[in-house]
Structure formats: structure tokens, C-alpha cells
């Protein structure tokens, strides 16, 4: 990408996105990170050799793409001084702030601004993230590809059909890592209770999670079929799966994701 990209906010997600793009061939000279924390800027300068500044207006002067990577509660305050410049230059704006709707962003920046809402998750920090994207009608086809390329630098990036589905993305993949971490916790504890050392139980659990995900990603069959293939009739796996089914594991997940979805909608409101 020969475009110039500016990140407002230089935290973990912004630096991971910048690092991912550099790893895929983007010249660090075309990347700028803005932050009020000079220590944070010094760290990313050393790590990535990118441009840094504490002045958001200066950092956005030549940007073709601006990534909003600040906390939702300060977004309006951060954007207010930038409205004039953004109206003049019309950069593509990517927001990775949870709960900030396109309507709010357009209210703060102008109705004619090209804006994409992005919902990444924390595995993006190790370049295995999953991101949902939704663009407003001002975003061109070229800008859609730019947005997808930025987020794909740290993992999977998929477009959703409407903005409401961003809340569903939040429930499935945005909050999703915590669900798997909880399962890992439970398996380690159960393995330890069965007599394994905590270290062995942890290593076996984490490697099993990694291997299972890799099998599901690379396989040409659905996860349900992979589960059936592991579940021999009358065997140990069938006994374990039966107990989970009897305790309504599927219903628990359905209720949990519905709760996350509703909470996401409440926060967006």
C-alpha cells in the first residue's frame, strides 16, 4: 500500500495493525501514530521506525486513511478539533472503537465522510485476529479494499451486511476469545483435579485448542463433522460430549452470545 495511514492512539491494537502492515510490505515512512503519551510514542518509534507525533492535526495533514484507536469515551473530544481538516481532505476513517455508531461519527465529522466501523478482537495482537467491517455509503470500492487490507494485516477481515451485525460480530468474535479462555481455564482445572500437574494440564489444553482450531480452519468439512469423527461410539469422548449435551452446553452458549449482543446494542445506543 502506497497510501499514507495515520493512527490516532498508539496503544496495543494500533501498534499491532501498524506492525502487521509493515510485515506485509508497507513502508514505515507512510505510517504515523499519534498519542498524548510520549513514552508510548517512543516505544513504537523504536519498535516500528514509524512517524510519531503528539499533535493529531499535524499527524493527519497528509493522511489518506485515519484509524481511530482511542477509547470510546474520549472519541468526541478527540475528533472535535479534526472536523475542519477532515472535511477539507476527506480521508477514509476507520473506527475500531466499540459502541461508537456511524451516526455518531458522522455527527462529529460530517455526514459526507467515508467511514468504516471495524470490530477486531484481541488475537489481532498476535496477528491471528478476526474483524468484522461495515462501511457507510460514502466509502468507495477502492476505500473498501483499503479498509479490508488494513484489518487483514492482523488476521481475518470480513464485511457484514448491515451495521446491526457489528453487534453480532462483537458477541461472536469480539468477546469470543474470553469464551475460549474460560474453556481453557476449566479444562486445566479439571485436568489438575484428575492428577496431572498444572503445567502439564495447561500445556496439553493449550496445544489441543491450537490443534483443534488449525484442523477446523484447514479442513474441508464442518466442525460438527470433525466432532463426530473424534466421537467413537461407546468411547471416552462420547461419554464427555453426552454430559455436556445433557447439561445444555449449546443453550448456554446461545444465551451467552445473546446477552453479549444485547449489551453491545445497549452500549451503542
Radius of gyration: 21 Å
Q: What can be said about the biggest beta sheet?
A: 8 strands, mixed
Adjacency order of strands in the biggest sheet: 3-2-1-4-5-6-7-8
- Work out the strand percent: 5-15%
- CATH-defined architecture of the largest domain: 3-Layer(aba) Sandwich
Structural overview:
- By secondary structure, the protein is an alpha/beta fold.
- The chain is built from 13 helices and eight strands.
- Strands 3-2-1-4-5-6-7-8 form an eight-stranded mixed sheet, sandwiched between helices.
- It is elongated, with a radius of gyration of 21 Å.
- The relative contact order is 0.09.
- Keywords: Amino-acid biosynthesis, Cytoplasm, NADP, Oxidoreductase, Proline biosynthesis.
Provide tags for this entry.
269 residues; alpha/beta; Rossmann fold; 2 domains; 8-stranded mixed beta sheet; 13 helices; 13% strand; P5CR_dimer
Helix and strand topology:
Layout: E1 5-8, H1 12-23, E2 31-34, H2 38-48, E3 51-53, H3 56-60, E4 65-68, H4 75-79, H5 83-89, E5 92-95, H6 102-109, E6 115-119, E7 129-135, H7 141-152, E8 155-159, H8 164-174, H9 176-193, H10 198-218, H11 223-230, H12 236-246, H13 249-268
Parallel strand pairs: 1-2, 1-4, 2-3, 4-5, 5-6, 7-8
Antiparallel strand pairs: 6-7
Protein name: Pyrroline-5-carboxylate reductase
Pathway: Amino-acid biosynthesis; L-proline biosynthesis; L-proline from L-glutamate 5-semialdehyde: step 1/1
Catalytic activity: L-proline + NAD(+) = (S)-1-pyrroline-5-carboxylate + NADH + 2 H(+); L-proline + NADP(+) = (S)-1-pyrroline-5-carboxylate + NADPH + 2 H(+)
